[in-house]
Amino acid sequence: MLTDIEIAQQAKMMKIKDVAAKLNVTEDELEPYGHYKAKLSQQLIDRVKDNADGKLILVTAINPTPAGEGKTTTSVGLAEGMNKIGKKACLALREPSLGPVFGVKGGAAGGGYAQVVPMEDINLHFTGDMHAITAANNLLAAMMDNHIQQGNELGIDVRRILFKRCLDMNDRALRNCVVGMGGKVNGVPREDHFQITVASEIMAILCLASDLNDLKERLGNILVAYKYNGEPVYARDLKAVGAMTALLKEAINPNLVQTLENNPAIIHGGPFANIAHGCNSVRATKLAMKLADYTITEAGFGSDLGAEKFFDIKCRFAGLKPDCVVLVATIRALKYNGGVAKPDLTTENVEALNKGIVNLGVHIENMKKYGVPVVVAINHFYTDSEAEIAAVRKYCEDKGVKVAFSDVFLKGGEGAVELANAVVETIETEQSNFKPLYDEKLTIKEKLDIIAREIYRADGVTYTAAAEKAIKEIENLGLDRVPVCCAKTQYSLSDDPAKLGHPKNFTITVSDARVSNGAGFVVVYTGDIMTMPGLPKVPAANNIDVAEDGTISGLF
Question: How large a percentage of the chain has pLDDT more than 70?
């Protein structure tokens, strides 16, 4: 069987101008990056701004397991399937981070015969957006340290610096460090921290900004530190905003690529959903909706993270009204939630399936709380037995949702025809009455309590002393009446990754809170979540190589 990269390398790609033409985008509205990828210009965004919006479909999933769910693969396959049944559809996905690419999770370009290409480019440097975000982030950090070195006119308290440096790589050694060592000429020594680029506030700002002016304003609003007298210091106080914007002026434009079946895919922005808001850019989603009748987008990890943030943060800010949710699961993953060890998942086990399917049930119920119709997509494996398939169909029927089996990994768009028809029928027959889960004007604790009880199904929330202090400081600045972005493990509905299925009788523990004032939300950290991942014992990077002719191998 061919690997993902071997399938991608055999793809017969169209020139990007011909892919763009499928969306009625002219060559003059493209900024090409080679033959097969391009930036979509502001000129195009301005031209289509008065077009009617197409339907918006969110693809999300149950909590991820080692058995795999295939959310991005399903998203790509659904777009292929939509086009296969004669619908004008466009993907709107996130850009992969180099952290997972070289770590353990892998890339984010789909899999099998449901991929976006050129796969190697997308998973590696792509059009340089990640590097631009990293550079803008670290320019602000450098200007802050330089301001302190050059006399500290603002009176920045080096013990109360909030803004972190970033790197788009898993590097645990950089989580905590000391900068400015080596004498006076090398700066003022202080404790510093790195986070992965996709968790940075600059990433969130890029993904939520509506245009270049909005981007500049948001960058200026970043809270970077406190003064010795307790007053806040913002990025605009360091006169860093113009230069940061210059680094991001190309990165703010969405990227156009194609699927294996030469259908258009807009890929832009890449925040993680467990430590950030987990959605592609507002500009990319809105543009796709202006260019196609159906836009398929996805939000990271399970619906308790990505979908919740998509609804409560992205849709709230952007004024989006999703028409359908596609909830992805596998029978293998549901059996894993029922206690089956990974090596035994290929054996029929209806009893374990019925035990673990409660995880799917919680996600279905949670999505319905937002007033959006739900379709369950079962990513089909050849080991799924007829009895197991029947059990899943009956469970979904009892829950009042359509279920469709997807075989896109092996069959591409043809394997998504059942799913595509189910989604179209749902949109045409069921009204979306979307509304966010909470009023952002509530207190931080009130908002978090609603998320914890309604989405995670927790009994409540507890706060460490550090979290209590951080929340109080945010409230004192008057920056608390905004949405909440929860940093939480993706593996469980709870904040304990070992609690599978539908955990009960637990509370969520908040260890810290930070305001992302430029992005417009408050991040709360739960459990042992970290914003700079580490590499596993055997990184995926071990398997990657390049031949003499430049062909990459081992990239999935």
Answer: 100
